[in-house]
Amino acid sequence: CKLVRYIQHLTPGVQIYVLLSICVDRFYTIVYPLSFKVSREKAKKMILASWLFDAAFASPAFFFYGSSSDGHCNFFLPDSWQGAVYSIIHLLVLFFIPSVLIVLFYQKVIKYIWRIGTDGRTVRRTMNIVPRTKVKTIKMFLMLNSVFLLSWLPFYVAQLWHPQETDYRKSSLVFLAITWISFSSSASKPTLYSVYNANFRRGMKETFCMSAMKCYRSNAHTITTSSRIAKK
């Protein structure tokens, strides 16, 4: 019971801080392309920091959750001052503050792109060029973040609300509805990627044998490999 509730508090926090890291990367890539670059090592450190920070911050769930005498595993935080304080801090640190930062970063990126031109092909400002593909990527991540934040909002509101669990059937239905809404953000990602990302659509077609490019790429790989062996 404690482990399941801990994971339910851990995963959304990790996701939102990883999304914040991607947002920071997109911001500097578009607005300050020469001053900051996220290398593979920096990306690993940012992801690791997201996991470690949230793993430590979600650890009080082991204290607040547990099974009752009749074997019921509580769905929500307890209706006490400790539970209220933790739910407020949890809402602020793991949802509200990173959400505001994500919105501010993307607002600056969209404002920057809008200000320097919208000719439909390439957005220019002096020597800095923002290709149309990057603009589409920003739109895709903006939509992903919006869906994620809206779908996980009921979970954090419910933890702040502290519903009474006297009626186990009613509370389980409420928790089930909130869980389905929350994890629907992950289920919606393939659809959003297919709408905004041509490479994803092509890869899906190749996976389901709906494109002749699979055969072409296989032959190209064979030719390239043979050329390298011939050169050696």
UniProtKB/TrEMBL annotation:
Pfam families, per the entry: 7tm_1 (PF00001)
Signal peptide residue numbers: none
InterPro entries reported in the protein's UniProt record: GPCR_Rhodpsn (IPR000276), GPCR_Rhodpsn_7TM (IPR017452)
Gene Ontology molecular functions: G protein-coupled receptor activity; peptide binding
GO biological process: cellular response to hormone stimulus
Keywords: Cell membrane, Disulfide bond, G-protein coupled receptor, Glycoprotein, Membrane, Receptor, Transducer, Transmembrane, Transmembrane helix
Domain G-protein coupled receptors family 1 profile: 1-193
Transmembrane segment boundaries: 46-65, 85-106, 141-161, 173-196
Protein name (database record): Probable G-protein coupled receptor 19
Source organism per UniProt: Mesembrinibis cayennensis
Record lineage: Eukaryota, Metazoa, Chordata, Craniata, Vertebrata
